[in-house]
């Protein structure tokens, strides 16, 4: 499986990360991200979905607190983030999905999102609540500043 724009890069630039072209995700997780985004609107909501290390399977949903309480920026609460990493280490888990909402713009990574994308194995899911009647959910891979949109396969 190839991802245009990434697999044709030199292996050292791509960080030897093999990326899927599809994020398989449970409807319950998508619904939870949307509900969190709507509840925190007009501020950005943020969180993660973790899964077994190396599996690329999102299994455990964790809504995080946006420490900045901002409509244009998010930052995980540092205490929650520390606890998250300790729990993942204990359970042999890793971040599979990093999600956050955009409250006034489309569901596409901003320059700030690109600069803070630090999990090369993760899917970056954006939920746009700019139009409350038509919430948009899109998924991306972000590696070395390169954004690649991927399909969402929602499972029941």
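^ structure tokens above, recovered residues below v
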């Amino acid at each position: 499986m190839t991802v245009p724009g990434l697999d044709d890069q030199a292996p050292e630039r791509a960080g030897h990360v093999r990326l899927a072209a599809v994020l398989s995700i449970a409807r319950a997780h998508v619904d939870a991200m949307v509900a969190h985004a709507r509840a925190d609107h007009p501020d950005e909501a943020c969180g993660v979905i973790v899964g077994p290390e190396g599996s690329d399977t999102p299994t455990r949903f964790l809504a995080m607190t946006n420490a900045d309480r901002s409509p244009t920026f998010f930052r995980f609460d540092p205490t929650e983030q520390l606890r998250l990493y300790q729990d993942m280490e204990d359970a042999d888990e890793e971040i599979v999905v990093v999600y956050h909402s955009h409250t006034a713009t489309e569901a596409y990574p901003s320059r700030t999102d690109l600069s803070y994308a630090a999990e090369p194995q993760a899917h970056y899911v954006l939920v746009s609540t700019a139009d409350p009647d038509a919430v948009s959910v899109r998924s991306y891979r972000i590696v070395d500043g390169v954004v690649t949109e991927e399909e969402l396969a929602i499972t029941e």
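The helical segments are 11-14, 27-40, 78-91, 111-116.
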